[in-house]
């Protein structure tokens, strides 16, 4: 009964966004159970426990992991439950604690057998593997194990939680982005059915991020869906989901060309005031998200100075740390590379732009080895910009054309449009105005299909300006 009371209190604290109090209470309960978590989490500690966990897992094949006995020790099961509660808030409040919690959950599962919550442990480990070490194959393996454990225990109540890690963090490195869309809707529906509204609503944010940033789903339809999702999040007073959806909604309406201001509607403030509040509340994840959103819209509109400003704000003030990556973060890495190569060929020397661009390109090369479908078009466009920077016109044009072709084949219409836009600018630089007009027109067609009417107008202005200049 005492443990039940503590568990209830912990969930109340977490729901109230009192993250440090939640973690302190969980640590107290774990200590009472004999599971001591050091108060000071150092890089050496994380590395040591990571190596210990990896060494232990090396002794098991995937079938052997799935064949582990049932966890019958009640103390072990209570520990893994408490670790899960701490993990859910450590992501926001104390991110460097997160891997330690996950490693302890895996250790309990290996030593005492599997329970339904072991599925959360393995999907969380997979998310860490793809994030911290970019071990995409290892993470993918852990994701598959998590799904099978969940099925073994018929743990429908955990689908929403497990799908967050598996389809939000892990499978995006191996499977087409588009494959995850229906999974997030399924996770919302299952989570709602079992009453896990916090996890369920989180999938609305994941769905919208995937659809908007990664897949290039039609913005007009997506805009209406976000309205519905926001109303439901408000109904359940889920501040985290309301905040993330508002940032997504703001980006969507700007791309659509609407004058609507979601920040005013849902938070009764401007975007700048929203950002300032997030800063005051030390909401680094939300601050980084706003920075990335502002970079996104500025880059697509061609305002590279503003894009660079928000890239640098994110980089210097809100580093990602150990937090898992979602699809929007992967797209942001690509956009940061484009910003970097743009300024690498200018006189702006405030940052090591060439080095930053090459670093992004190196990451995209590795990512493309894991998923050609998701990353090849992005890599080709970064390579095109790199070859422009080093003065190799022939190879630059080859890469531009490859990026356009792959984006079209893989149904990333927004990035197909961006590749056409960049190709047009390349042709202008070399005095080929008719070629530039062709690619601006193709970019316009892509953006129209995407529903990005604001970008259609940008292309119309470029076409009009270039046509006027050509006629003189």
Q: The biggest beta sheet, please? A: none
Determine the N-to-C terminus distance.
85 Å
Estimate the mean pLDDT confidence.
Answer: 92
Give me the Rg, rounded.
23 Å
Q: What proportion of the residues form beta strands (DSSP E)? A: under 5%
Please, how many helices?
24
Structural class by SSE content: mainly alpha
Listing every helix as H and every strand as E from the N terminus to the C terminus, the arrangement reads HHHHHHHHHHHHHHHHHHHHHHHH
The count of β-strands is 0
List keywords for this structure.
472 residues, mainly alpha
Write up this protein.
With 472 residues, the chain is mainly α. The chain has helices at 2-15, 19-32, 43-57, 62-66, 74-93, 98-112, 118-132, 136-152, 159-170, 181-194, 197-215, 219-235, 239-256, 262-267, 271-280, 284-301, 304-317, 327-344, 353-370, 372-390, 393-409, 413-429, 433-450, 453-471. Helix 1 (2-15) packs antiparallel against helix 2 and helix 17 packs across helix 18 (327-344). The longest helix is centred in the first third of the chain and has 20 residues, at 74-93. The termini are far apart.
């Amino acid at each position: 009964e005492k443990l039940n009371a503590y568990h209830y209190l912990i969930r109340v604290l977490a729901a109230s966004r009192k993250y440090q109090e939640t973690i302190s209470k969980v640590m107290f309960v774990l200590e009472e159970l004999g599971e001591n978590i050091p108060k000071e989490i150092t890089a050496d500690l994380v590395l040591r426990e990571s190596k210990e966990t990896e060494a232990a897992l090396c002794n098991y094949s995937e079938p052997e992991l799935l064949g582990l006995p049932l966890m019958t020790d009640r103390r072990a099961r209570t520990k893994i439950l408490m670790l899960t509660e701490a993990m859910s808030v450590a992501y926001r409040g104390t991110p460097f604690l997160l891997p330690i919690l996950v490693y302890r959950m895996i250790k309990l599962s290996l030593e005492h057998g599997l329970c339904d919550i072991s599925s959360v442990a393995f999907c969380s480990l997979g998310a860490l593997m793809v994030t911290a070490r970019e071990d995409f194959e290892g993470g993918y393996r852990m994701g598959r194990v998590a799904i099978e454990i969940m099925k073994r225990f018929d743990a429908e109540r955990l689908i929403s939680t497990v799908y967050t890690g598996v389809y939000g963090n892990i499978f995006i490195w191996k499977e087409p982005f588009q494959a995850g869309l229906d999974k997030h809707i399924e996770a919302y529906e299952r989570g709602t059915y079992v009453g896990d509204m916090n996890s369920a609503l989180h999938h609305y944010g994941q769905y919208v991020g995937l659809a908007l940033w990664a897949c290039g789903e039609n913005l007009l339809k997506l805009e209406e869906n976000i309205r519905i999702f926001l109303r439901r999040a408000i109904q359940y007073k889920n501040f985290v989901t309301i905040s993330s959806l508002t940032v997504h909604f703001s980006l969507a309406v700007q791309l659509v060309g609407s004058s609507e201001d979601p920040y005013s509607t849902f938070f009764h403030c401007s975007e700048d005031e929203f950002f300032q509040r997030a800063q005051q509340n030390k909401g680094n994840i939300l601050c980084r998200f706003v920075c990335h959103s502002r970079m996104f819209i500025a880059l697509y509109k061609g305002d590279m100075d503003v894009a660079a400003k928000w890239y640098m704000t994110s980089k210097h003030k809100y580093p990602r740390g150990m937090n898992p990556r979602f699809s929007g973060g992967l797209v942001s890495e690509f956009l940061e590379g484009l910003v970097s190569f743009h300024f690498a060929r200018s006189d702006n020397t405030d940052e090591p732009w060439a080095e930053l661009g090459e670093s992004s390109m190196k990451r995209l090369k590795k990512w493309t080895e894991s998923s050609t479908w998701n990353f090849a078009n992005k890599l080709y466009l970064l390579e095109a910009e790199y070859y422009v920077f080093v003065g190799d016109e022939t190879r630059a044009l080859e890469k531009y054309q490859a990026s356009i072709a792959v984006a079209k084949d893989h149904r990333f219409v927004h990035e197909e449009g961006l590749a056409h836009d960049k190709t047009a600018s390349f042709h202008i630089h070399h005095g080929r105005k008719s070629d530039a007009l062709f690619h601006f027109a193709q970019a316009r067609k892509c953006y129209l299909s995407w529903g990005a009417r604001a970008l259609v107008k940008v292309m119309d202005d470029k076409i009009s300006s270039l046509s006027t200049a050509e006629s003189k």
